Amino acid sequence: MWDWIVNILAVVLGGIQSFAVDWGLSIIILVVIIRLILTPLQLKSTKSQARMQVLQPKLMEIQEKYADDPQKQSEMMQKFYSENKFNPLGGCLPLLIQMPVLFALFTLLRDIRKYLEVKGDFCFFGIMPNLSASVSGTLTTDPMQSIPYVVALLLFAVLTLIPTLMQARNQTGSQAQSMKTMAIVMSVMMLWIGWSLPAGVLLYYDVSTGWQVIQQIFVTQKVMEKAKEEEQERMENAPLEVDVVRRERRQRPHKKN
Questions:
Q1: Which end of the chain offers a freer environment for a tag, N or C, measured as fewer CB atoms within 10 Å?
Q2: 108 burial class (0-12, 13-18, 19+ CB within 10 angstroms)?
């Protein structure tokens, strides 16, 4: 299923390696390229999330008003999305694009010599002697050499935690607490998942998520605040909708001749 993506990724990574020399550096350059391509989508996603936060009270009002009529509730929510030109899945697009790349990279790095001609060691400047090796594998063979791999694994978990906690700051009440709980659970899962992943995948994820955190601190927060202000202003200036219930017209009595 992933073969065509894996083959494209192999060509791109091989092309980067031809001038980058080091395989770990090639993976970092690949991250930069993909992140630059995704930046416009990421900013659009941020604006979508900001709009969702502004529209949330109105959505909750619709859900409560039509709680006993799921069909009517669904119709009114669709109408609301249409009127406000809002796509609930808009914020998920960057993640949906990155996931196939991550899965393809896992397949590629697990058996790199099947897809590419690797000359010399498949390493990251000697820090990680083998980017196809996993944390579990290096701990078994050489515990001292496994230290960089363990650090990459810990970053794999911590860098999953930080972006979600930063997003939770923009929420309030139970929603914020739910996001914090989800972040902790995801971090623990990442430790379990990353235990057997190739080190190259951990390197890719660590650099990519590190980019996301920096972007979120210096760019995303400002974009979100501006988008919130614009959406609140739009909602305040939107024409007021009034439900008009027409009275039933009564038939006038005929005069008797």
A1: C
A2: buried
pLDDT at 125 > cutoff 70: yes
Distance CA 175, CA 253 (A): 60
Question: Which among 51, 100, 46 has a CA at the least distance from the CA of 215?
Answer: 46
Determine the Cα angle at 140 with ends 138 and 145, to 5°: 40
Cα–Cα distance between 144 and 141 in angstroms, integer? 9
CA 147/CA 139 separation, integer angstroms: 8
Q: Output the pTM of the full model.
A: 0.78
Torsion of CA 161, 163, 168, 169, to 10 degrees: 120
Decide: 13 and 31 in contact? Cβ < 8 Å: no
Chain centroid to CA 153: 20
At residue 147's C-alpha, the angle toward residues 145 and 153, to 5°, is 130
Residue 199 reports pLDDT greater than 60: yes
Q: Are 30 and 12 in contact (CB under 8 A)?
A: yes
- Report the phi/psi class of residue 173: left, alpha or beta, with left for phi > 0 and alpha for psi in -120 to 50: left
> Both tokens of residue 226?
């501006």
Question: Under 8 Å CB-to-CB from 90, ≥6 apart: which residues?
Answer: 44, 45, 48
**Tokens read off for 37:** 């391509």
How confident is the model over 62-68, as a mean pLDDT? 81
Residue 65 and residue 27: Cα distance in Å, rounded? 51
SS3 of residue 124 by DSSP: strand
Query: Could you tell me which residues are beta bridge partners of residue 124?
Result: 128
Mean pLDDT of the chain, nearest integer? 80
